[in-house]
Amino acid sequence: MDKKHHIAIFTTASLPWMTGTAINPLFRAAYFAKNEERKVTLVIPWLSPKDQDHVYPNKISFKLPSEQEKYVRQWVEERTGFISTFDIRFYPGKFSQDKRSILAAGDITEIIPDEEADIAVLEEPEHLTWYHHGKRWKTKFHLVIGVVHTNYLEYVRREKNGQLQAFVLEYINGWVVDIYCHKVIRLSAATQDLPRSIICNVHGVNPKFLEIGRKKNEQLDANQTFSKGAYYIGKMVWHKGYKELLKLLSDHQKELAGIELDLYGNGEDSGQVQEAAKKLEIAIRVHPGRDHADPLFHDYKVFLNPSTTDVVCTTTAEALAMGKIVVCAEHPSNEFFKQFPNCRTYEDGNGFVKAMCKALADEPALLTDSQRHELSWEAATERFLKAAELDNAPAKRLTEKPSSLLMSTALNLQRNLVDASALVHFVGTSFLSSQPEEEQCKELGLAVPSRRWGISSSTIDKHYTNSLL
Fold it and tell me: Which of 114, 175, 321, 464 is the most buried (most CB within 10 A)?
């Protein structure tokens, strides 16, 4: 490329919160910037002290953004083995306890100066734009690519009045993504269909797990087998697969008599999970959560994952990278993993029993170099570049070029409808979006926004004019 593209990766979480939208975008930024062909900026939320207390584990907190940046860089460099060359910038965020999520405060497009605005990657585009009240992403950036991480519809369906909530949310997600994204990458078909979207797993595995797998291969070559049986690791909340798992075990206690299973995780449903496990005749041990790379897990042979709320389960990929047999549900979220011989899927309870017993009796197949590469972040980056056609990204804003008067009229009508839709969203979010706290603005070097209710007609006119550019 004659000119380096500037890629700004916006995401909804940051370390030390060990969640997928904190970890995967961080690795993406590191590997995008690795060959120095692109200028990369990772844009992450900065939280007030009280929100840090709610979100970050082990009482970790930061007084300044620079302290958190140092923590983030050290974490990723320890795992990749190379110095990260991407920039880190922060936007003001607020933790919503009822949604258990971080929401952006103010117009976060302003974090990237206009002269640097080139390509934006929105990790969780629906989440980042539900309450977005500011410059339109497509106006600010030449190319906007959304990466859909979370199956929000499945989570919502499990709540009270879930079907109605999911119906409304499905419409809202499609609406905001259509307004703000040129292209969308869905990690798997477990997510809802969205405008201009394709399905491609653009996530890789922390290199640490591939190294663990290499060492395990050497041990297996020396006839050192796995000394432990089956386990599951995941946040201990019912919708993370524990409900499905305990029902399968309860329904098939006789067929699975004699097996032992270890569960690892922390979460608000830990007590209930432990009580339910005690009622079964199967030997189930429940433990606090631990880092999946902990040596404690190296000698387990079978990783069990019954969850059907994931989009692409990170721990499943990690288990495969470590050379384990994985037993998981026949579900769109596991489609990527089915290419690996150590992935065993089941469709029902009888299939679960059969897959479980066979996995415990078998020895895992050794990972080939090709299979190991397919799990890596190098391969994930290649898949992203191909799916998003990033190396062919334009140096100017995307515009449709009609080939006839009829097509021109249709495109103008479509563009006007989208512009009108964007205006409706802009006006509506003036009453829903929140402003950053004054202290946050000072810590980030941002202008303190004026406090006002509603928006002026001149602001609406300016936004609508910008949306036509």
Answer: 321
Question: Which token pair is 37?
Answer: 């062909």
Closest CA to 427 of 131, 171, 170, 144: 131
Q: How far apart are CA 134 and CA 175, in angstroms?
A: 16
Neighbours of 333 (CB within 10 A): 25
Cα distance between residue 57 and residue 86, in whole Å: 25
Average pLDDT over residues 177-186: 95
Residue 290 structure tokens = 């631990």
Q: Which residues pair with 233 in a beta bridge?
A: 264
Q: Are 300 and 268 in contact (CB under 8 A)?
A: no
Peptide bond into 16 cis (omega under 30): yes
Residue in 60, 50, 48, 49 with CA at minimum distance from that of residue 17: 60
pLDDT digits (tens, 9 = 90+) for 36-77: 889 999 999 999 999 999 999 889 999 999 999 999 999 999
* 330 vs 98: which has the higher pLDDT: 330
Question: From CA 303, how far away is CA 324, in angstroms rounded?
Answer: 7
pTM score of the predicted model: 0.87
Q: Which tokens belong to 256?
A: 């699975």
Euclidean distance between the first and the last CA atom of the chain, given in angstroms as a whole number: 26
Reported as a single tens digit per residue, the pLDDT across 357-393 is 999 999 999 999 999 999 999 999 999 999 998 766 6
Q: Tell me whether residue 306 is exposed, middle or buried, using C-beta atoms within 10 angstroms of its C-beta: 0 to 12, 13 to 18, 19 or more.
A: buried
Higher pLDDT, 412 or 200: 200
SS (H, E, C) the chain: CCCCCEEEEECCCCCCCCCHHHHHHHHHHHHHHCCCCCEEEEEEEECCHHHHHHHCHHHCCCCCHHHHHHHHHHHHHHHHCCCCCCEEEEEEEEEECCCCEEEECCCHHHHCCHHHCCEEEEECHHHHHCCCCCCCHHHHCCEEEEEECCCHHHHHHCCCCHHHHHHHHHHHHHHHHHHHCCEEEECCCCCCCCCCEEECCCCCCCHHHHHHHHHHHHHHHCCCCCCEEEEEECCCCHHHCHHHHHHHHHHCCCCCCCCEEEEECCCCCHHHHHHHHHCCCCEEEEECCCCCCCHHHCCEEEEEECCCCCCCCHHHHHHHHCCCEEEEECCHHHHHHHHCCCEEEECCHHHHHHHHHHHHHCCCCCCCHHHHHHHCHHHHHHHHHHHHCHHHCCCCCCCCCCCCHHHHHHHHHHHHHHHHHHHHHHHHHCCCCCCCCHHHHHHHCCCCCCCCCCCCHHHHHHHHHHHCC
Antiparallel, parallel or unpaired: β 6-10 and 119-123: parallel
Residue 401 token pair: 């070029």
